[in-house]
Amino acid sequence: MDRIAFKAHLSIATPAKAKQMVAQLLREKGYQIRRAGRGKDRGVDMILSGAGKRIALVLKLHSKRVGAGEVQKAFGAAEEVGADECWLFSSKGFTDEAEEAADKIGVRCLDSERLWRLRSVSPGVLVMRGA
What we know:
By secondary structure, this protein is α/β, with parallel strands linked by helices. It has helices at 3-12, 15-28, 68-80, 96-105, 112-117; strands spanning 32-35, 46-50, 53-60, 85-90, 107-110, 118-122, 125-128.
């Protein structure tokens, strides 16, 4: 699937299908994925592993952009599960305040374009295309 098709399909996918699409894309980039369970994982949808890191991935599939409060919640959830990093995906993007909060506390914000542009250098190590 190309970038345009991925973004189009993701924008209309059910939450379950969107999670599957995100997981598949990350597997193709060399990540091992464990789907997090409800309750004890405090909102973490997936735990990614690769290159010696555990990354908590929180997916927000809402009709509006994610705000700073959601960034802080994702960070707290990542700490609760003992992750080394926190990634927050939003199907609608992020407010300026959310981007600022993420920069301050070390949360990586991903929308569909940023997610697609992740490119695997080796399993678990990603760079941005064109960077």
